[in-house]
Amino acid sequence: MAPGLLLVTQVGRSFQDEFPDVKPVLDRGRHLVISAADKPRKRSNHCWRVEALHAGTVVALPEQVATRVDPTIAGLLAELDPASYQTDVTWFASLPTRHSHSTSFVTAVEYAEQRMVALGYQTRRQPITVGTKPSQNLIGERAGSGDGVVLVTAHLDSINLAGGASAPAPGADDNASGSAGVLELGRVLATKNWQHDLRLILFGGEEEGLYGSKQYVAALPPAERARIRAVLNLDMIASKNSTTPTVLLEGAPLSSGLVDDLATAAATYTGLAVETSLNPFASDHVPFITAGIPAVLAIEGSDSANSHIHSATDTLNFLNWPLAAEILRMNTAALAGWLQPVTARPRPAGSIVSWGPNRIDIFVT
């Protein structure tokens, strides 16, 4: 433990906005180091957390090592459609709010469900409780040929913290960008056959405290938990907050392999700079990690510089479409590795004739 120092993990600038007089010793956007003398009376809320700075806790800029481009993955990346993605983001952000208790949240669920069904996914809605009121998660499933399952998740709800439940909350970056990303990844991945099941989930209740993802994980039977090979959570992927296009990959030691896979995919197929953290906080990957399931968050770098989230000004005109496209390329490449493509068996070039037991001739034409 580093004496006299504390680690702050925050969503956006939530800690800095609440404690503007606290001057960080080190500012890495989502993560701050502050003096113990500046420790606030409360340790956390659902937007920020303060804890002791333990030795070895780092946010790193790892060396990115590109691998050889895989032609199959390159072909899959060519299927990504920025126009389709932008259409979905724009539609979600056009709603007055997607607060988890609102009728327009249900409208957003209906839109997303129609998109999933059209892509061939089997859908269901999971009732959840957000605070004392009902809401729901949307789940879409596409079967593979093996025993495992890979999850791609995002939260569909939005919030206006200052204005309350009925105030405008377009949530263009937080998190129409991630929800539309799930749909676009689901569209592209549905064009291939995979060894493992693919499950798309759009959660409700994230902004109030991860209600949707917590209740989803709590309801998983042990055998179903054991099937999950990877969880990729998208939360805020379309605001360019620094000169260099950057993505933060946040997981835990049990998901460090997923973080490495995504970093390699970024180096091979994108121009993204990559930051990593194994100190998960405040998004829907956390309940999975708490349950021992490998999960990772992909979020825009330097998200603390994004002052528009959780307000009426989180609108389309602050989005950076090329950044979102790069993050989706990285995600697609990593997901292809986790899902594992089904390899077609080679077929003989001509007729096959069996003359008897263990006697087969192939005639090439």
From TrEMBL:
Pfam families per record: Peptidase_M28
Source species, domain of life: Bacteria
GO molecular-function terms, A-Z: metalloexopeptidase activity
Gene Ontology biological process terms, A to Z: proteolysis
Domain Peptidase M28 stretches: 137-330
Name of the protein this chain belongs to: Zn-dependent exopeptidase M28
Source organism (scientific name): Kribbella albertanoniae
Organismal lineage: Bacteria, Bacillati, Actinomycetota, Actinomycetes, Propionibacteriales
